[in-house]
Amino acid sequence: RFRHYVLATVRDKEIKLALIRLGGVMSPDVVLEDELPGIRLLPDACALYAEGEAGATKMRLAFRNPLTRPVQLELEQASAAPRALARPPLWRWQAESLAAGELLNRPLDAPAQAASAGQGAGREYRAVFRFTNGRGESEALDFSIEPRTVRSLSAAPAPRELSIDGDLSEWKESHWQDISAAEQITLGPASWKGAADLSARFAVSYDAANACFGVRVEDDHVAFHTAITEGDGVELYLAAPGNGEISFPGDKDWHRLVVAPFSAAGTSPGETAGPARVQQYGAQPLTVRAAYRRDDKGYCIELAMPLRELGWSDRGDAQNQLDVAVNDRDLGPRREKQLAWSGTERDPFASRYYGRLRFAAP
Predict the structure, then answer these.
(1) What distance in Å separates the CA atoms of residue 61 and residue 46, rounded to the nearest whole number?
(2) pTM (two decimals)
(3) Residue 109 has pLDDT above 50, yes or no
(4) Is 30 left (phi over 0), alpha (psi -120 to 50) or beta?
(5) Which of 57, 67, 86, 90 has fewest C-beta within 10 Å?
(6) Distance between CA atoms of 198 and 179, rounded to whole angstroms?
(7) Summary mean pLDDT of the chain
(8) Is the Cα dihedral 262, 265, 266, 270 positive or negative?
(9) Is 298 exposed, middle or buried (0-12, 13-18, 19+ CB in 10 A)?
(10) CB under 8 Å to 123, separation ≥6 — which residues?
């Protein structure tokens, strides 16, 4: 589950650090305190967007340099055979050096021979980041990267002012999105028993001032937990990168909300309906109104927040990014499974695979 480990050895008053990852032990000089924040972001700083029909080789590459120094990006495609049997890369693409914070967004065409050579054995892509660390030494980090098709949806204008009370009867004409497929599981695939166990539908609406969200969750056992991320609930990931595809948690436009169908106080499940419990993560808290309703088949969540605070707009070039995930705890001590609409288990670290939202004309 973890991409690397830090090994610390202590003798008398001396401490030594080593960064251990697949492929070997890296120089401890790479673990410099001022470089760690950017290095932690590297695994989620690059995205491959699959475009066209399934099996097509057309892709688009996006990268945002999170380091405080230039980075050279390479992309490799290789057979997914075990390392001991691995062959040289089927192809390699190399970008120019990108300055700190610089963005890269360009089409990428994998050669046809690369697309066919790995059939049967599987293929994997790896992003390789080369840079000079604070000690003046050359370093290289590489991470696997999966081409993904990013989902999109349309937000319908609200026919009237919505009552944020957990009753979704006003949402009948909305554009509903499903979260119910096996490929949408991001946690606990072995424990998921199908749509009745955990699934959801959601829609987005808007008026002149607010973006509104309605979520209906099917869950055969709605379970409370005092730690909001360990019980049943809905997670919303929101971003509006002004000049690229990728926002990080430290950016002002990035937001994560966990909304639970329980009392806002968080000390007990509370009544079957009322103001919902909300916990926010991000640099800029949002003004949120949220409510829930529970029943014997699951629960509903309804919430609203100002468009101005989100930074979302109806401009044609606007990057309105969104992902919705549903958490499930049954009889165990903590959360056991999660399904997400568009993203992955890495949603808390970057917006690269969030879905894209457009506002339908009134």
Answers:
(1) 7
(2) 0.86
(3) yes
(4) alpha
(5) 86
(6) 9
(7) 87
(8) negative
(9) buried
(10) 77, 78, 79, 80, 90, 114
